[in-house]
Amino acid sequence: MRIFASIDELKAATGEHLGHTPWRRITQEQVDLFADATGDHQWIHVDAERAKAGPFGGTIAHGYLSLSLLPSFTQELYRVEGVTMGVNYGLNKVRFPAPVPVGAEVRAGAEILSVRGTPAGTHCALKVTIEVADQAKPACVAESLSLLVTG
Q1: 2-4/78-80 β-pairing
Q2: Would you say 106 and 130 are in contact if contact means Cβ atoms under 8 Å apart?
Q3: Which intervals hold domain MaoC-like (predicted)?
Q4: What is the distance, to the nearest Å, from the Cα of residue 86 to the centroid of all Cα atoms in its chain?
Q5: Is the pTM of this model over 0.85?
Q6: What domains sit in the chain, N to C, each tagged with a CATH number?
């Protein structure tokens, strides 16, 4: 984890890569719980028998499940001292270039794209890439926006 002493130090690191998180395995239980939470029970996610004969050879995680991991991944990558609250501000661009097979391991890496002050706090934009072990294409590439509040 990279720890920044201040917002100014974070801003000075614009353009730098923050490294990678540890690998974590995606389980069928996670996929099923995500399906229940979102109402997306498409067979490619939840029907292991049918999915074996499908285009991916087994069940895959929802793209939005991968995306929903961004906050926990970024919390593993960096912290800024003096920030009392970080709020998800949005996304500028999201792509899902490759599926995440259930049972695969994923990790994230991030690059600091921009850091700028606003009256509400500091906007931080990160390019986050979620990789799948032993897979050439990433599962998700997203420009994630956060509002960092101090004091």
Answers
A1: parallel
A2: yes
A3: 12-115
A4: 15
A5: yes
A6: 2-25+62-150 (3.10.129.10)
